[in-house]
Amino acid sequence: MALLRSGWLWRQTSVLKRWKLNWCHLWIDGSLCFYKTDKRREVEHRVNLTSACVDVRSGLECRGVTPPENNPRENLIMVQLTDGSTVNLCAHSEDESLAWKLTLLEIRRNLVFTYDPYNDSYQAVPINSYQTVYFSPAAGTHQFVVQRDPFDRTMDTLALSLLGGIAAGVAMRTFLWTPLFFC
């Protein structure tokens, strides 16, 4: 699994609201992991951002949060989760805070990344619920094929067919009873 971003961040604890310095890893699958040291022996806290993240704010957008000592407000990052809680983070500089925010927002979009070995970089491929991703290893490279689901419009067609059938049935019933009324 590929690592998107790592580094030291201050994290505010949820119970006592104290700031702790943690080594953080943001993995390509959307896991944001917090460790005590950069040796990564024991995970202190883990958040799955692909399913739990609602919004990411940084700097002066973070209201109601006081940064740790000797850090300005511009270094704050606030990740709002689906259960209503927040993960408050603080970077060491404003540039680092912005870089973390942009990376967190990329993960939130639910992207699939392809690796280009010639440029040693990852490319983002956006996926939604109507697309299928196939992984096919080729000679030395890995390719992702994004294919549209052929059955995504089936229910629309079925609903229109039922509505058309009902309308035709009502019209034919009227025409069948018409000769009896004139007798």
Q: How would you describe this structure to a colleague?
A:
With 183 residues, the chain is of the alpha+beta class. The protein has two domains: 3-109, Pleckstrin-homology domain (PH domain)/Phosphotyrosine-binding domain (PTB) (PH-domain like); 110-170, no CATH class. The protein has three helices and eleven strands. The strands form three sheets. It has a seven-stranded antiparallel β-sheet. A hairpin with a 3-residue loop joins strand 2 (19-27) and strand 3. The termini are far apart.
Helix content: 25-40%
Counted up, domains total 2
Mean pLDDT: 76
CATH architecture of the largest domain: Roll
Sequence stretches where pLDDT stays below 50 over 5 or more residues: 128-132
Structural class: alpha+beta
User: What is the number of E strands?
Assistant: 11
Strand order of the largest sheet: 4-3-2-1-7-6-5
- Rg for CA atoms: 27 Å
Largest sheet: 7 strands, antiparallel
CATH class placement of the largest domain: Mainly Beta
Order of helices and strands: EEEEHEEEHEEEEH
Strand content: 35-45%
Q: What is the CATH homologous superfamily assignment of the largest domain?
A: Pleckstrin-homology domain (PH domain)/Phosphotyrosine-binding domain (PTB)
CATH topology (fold) name of the largest domain: PH-domain like
Helical region count?
A: 3
Seen as an oligomer or otherwise, the chain set is single chain
Shape: elongated
Report the end-to-end length measured between terminal Cα atoms: 81 Å
Subcellular location: Membrane
Domain PH: 2-109
Keywords: Membrane, Transmembrane, Transmembrane helix
Protein name: Pleckstrin homology domain containing B1
